[in-house]
Amino acid sequence: MRDHIDTTFTSSGGGVEWLTSADPVAYEDAIAVMDERVARIAEGAPEAVWLLEHPPLYTAGTSAKDSDLIAADGFPVFHTGRGGQYTYHGPGQRIAYVMLDLKRRRPDVRAYVAALEAWLIRTLAGFDVQGERREDRVGVWVNRPELGRDREDKIAAIGVRVRRWVTFHGVSLNVNPDLSHFNGITPCGVSDPRFGVTSLADLGRPASMSSVDAALRDAFAPIFGT
């Protein structure tokens, strides 16, 4: 069970560089930047976390099924090398591309994914939202009993790739996106009607992107070091 995984990834030094893009970044450009940065990190450059938003788009991970693309709705679809299935990215969603050298920290991908979940859960707690893990579903979930018995909504997704023990891609946290845009896909392959998608705004916890960024930074060090 992921709850029993030690999610400590103490840095061996050097510091993590935090980057923030004010304007939406085209997906192809983001991939190119990550590829270049990951190569440099593998050679000893500082690690990085890049905070950004994308224009509306869908991405398909290595486990994506064609049947899970219900309707592209005019949005571009990108097939990417990250793990996972289909997901949506767009304005109002904070993307954190996390580029860490696990050789300097802890070469354990399963524990790394659990650490990303722990990071998101700690971040959400700062907004009085109780995020939770699920054994059979990667990501962070929120119970929604007011919407029905056994109802749970996903508020944050995770998709990672590792090259030469350096991580890239990362997490997406729904701050205030247009949730109807998720209707064009089966998000992360989860089709059970009990499970939906939510955001901080949808939960009645509106937040600015800058406050979310601050919360992500504050929650990062206890798990990953500085």
| Element-by-element helix/strand order | EHEEEEEHEEEEEH
Radius of gyration: 16 Å
Residue-averaged pLDDT, rounded? Answer: 90
The strand count comes to: 11
- For the termini, the CA-CA separation is 27 Å
How many helices? Answer: 3
β-sheet strand percentage:
25-35%
Query: What helical percentage do the residues reach?
Result: 10-25%
The helix-and-strand class reads alpha/beta
Layout: helices, strands, pairs:
Blueprint: E1 16-20, H1 27-42, E2 47-52, E3 57-60, E4 77-79, E5 86-89, E6 93-99, H2 109-125, E7 132-134, E8 137-143, E9 152-163, E10 166-174, E11 195-197, H3 209-224
Parallel strand pairs: 1-2, 3-4, 9-11
Antiparallel strand pairs: 2-6, 3-5, 6-10, 7-8, 8-9, 9-10
Helix pairs in contact: 2-3
What this model shows, in words?
- With 226 residues, the protein is an alpha/beta fold.
- The strands form two sheets. Strands 1, 2, 6, 7, 8, 9, 10 and 11 form an eight-stranded mixed beta sheet that branches. The chain has a three-stranded mixed beta sheet with strand order 4-3-5, with no helix packed on it.
- The chain has helices spanning 27-42, 109-125, 209-224; strands spanning 16-20, 47-52, 57-60, 77-79, 86-89, 93-99, 132-134, 137-143, 152-163, 166-174, 195-197.
- Helices cover 22% and strands 28% of the residues.
- Strand 9 (152-163) and strand 10 (166-174) form a beta hairpin.
- Helix 2 packs across helix 3.
- The model is unreliable at 1-5 (pLDDT under 50).
